[in-house]
Amino acid sequence: MKIVIVGGVAAGASAAARARRLSEDAEIVILQSGPDVSFASCGMPYFIGGEISDRDTMAVQTPESLHQRLNLDVRVNAVVESIDVETQTLVVKNASTGQVYSESYDQLVLAVGAAPIKPPIPGIDRPGLFALRNLQDMDDIVEWINKMTATMPASSMHCVVAGAGFVGLEMVEQLHHRGCQVTLVELQPQILAPLDEEMAAILHRDLEAHGVTVIVNDGIKEFTEDPTDPEASILTLGSGRKLPTAHLTILGLGVRPDTAVVKSAGINVTPRGHVIVDDFLHTSAKNVWAAGDAVQVRNAVLGGEEMWAVPLAGPANRQGRIVADNIFLETKKKYKGTYAVAVVRSFQEYAACVGMNEKLLRASKLPYQCVHIHPNSHAGYYPGASQIHLKVLFDKDTGKLYGAQAVGREGVEKRIDVIATAMQAGMLANDLAELELCYAPPVGSAKDPVNYAGMVAQNIMDGLVTQIEWKDLIDKVEQGTENNVVVLDVRGPSEIARDGPIAKGATNIPLNDLRQRMNELPANKDQHIVVTCASGQRAYYAYRILKQNGYTNVDNLGGAFATFHVIHPAPVGA
Question: Is the pTM of this model over 0.85?
């Protein structure tokens, strides 16, 4: 059997290695369009920033090492120009020599990946503008930075990162790490779109605290030459704002599936160009499979026929392995779908997520409930504990988990991994309360943040508490949809003096005084009261006190002051 694999990074390399382990006799050919195969693409920002210092480690494998270890025929700079699915042949061009030849296959694996989006912005081909897809891009960026800093101190070099996704944030951090001035520009209203806005706002504020200029809701309109330096650019934004002279611009404007040759072969793709595959990762063409960033897969969170495209290394590697299994093994394996589990570091903060966010749930017209909690990363009495901001989305009637997001300095990815595993096991939100997890004071708490989130979800599902979200409180107070809401803040006066009030005219009764001072609340027990505190726990206690004293229209503010303040720093109604 002859297997030809187009693409030799995550999915392609995984498929090739697994195929060899399953068959010593198969002829396995990898066609890689660039000069490197199986390279550490996720590590490229860290090499640019200097955290990874050894260039050789970025090339995880070479054509020679793959041939020696796995007897693979790896051809770099091999560009597939066409695919004939009837004759099962490819037309391939050697980009180094210009030679064009035909390559036959018995089984074809398309692991073509995704390419950076390069919109037709005037001046986008100017010097000093780079996308980051491969090691050559990485080397070019490092060479450019070294060239610029040979004539100016790094602190005088202004870098613009266009696009605030995962790679964009990593590049911001690493350029800052090299001592450069950094501006981050994002067309959308927030950074890091997989997070909901109040979670992304935590990172936004932290970036600004590190001296990064963050611009959202504004895109780049044009690049023009700086009149004093032909290698530098003036960036004009859609709003008309002009940025300071940019000596380097990183174009992180998203990716698109690199599937033009696939579509030309008549293989079914989506309107956005993602390859359509079945549950076994087989395409619409006989003996043709696809895996990795260029495929549309089942949305494992929603199930059914819901599909999405999630360009992540973990799913790509697993898909490549499954393709090889389905080529060789009698028992075929289904790819169950992707849960979109991801994490990024931004300076000292980490942000991680799994599943659906609120935007996606609203677009799917699904009812959902949020839990926001702000526990410590480990036991508070053990030195070094820091706060984790954790959000869980679920169906309050069924308990189905839709997704989770977390931001913090320690233990963030651990909690999201636990919730992701629970989702894949079909567990419900209230089941999180019962999980038995590792505990020792340096690494956790007896009531882990995941347990705590599950307990809050349990209380909501059991009808022990109702919540109002921060955006709904703003709407009620500022837009006048409800003029008579009473905000009851049960923090202590010293906390309010230090951190500020949450709302103009809020009633402050510390929790410990509430039973004795309920006469300060409206006599009408049908009055809408929203209870808040610093992080949510005391507000829940206050909610239970009020409900059991006859107050009928009480809501707990989801996430309390900790969530509200990061998205709305000024007191609401002020």
Answer: yes
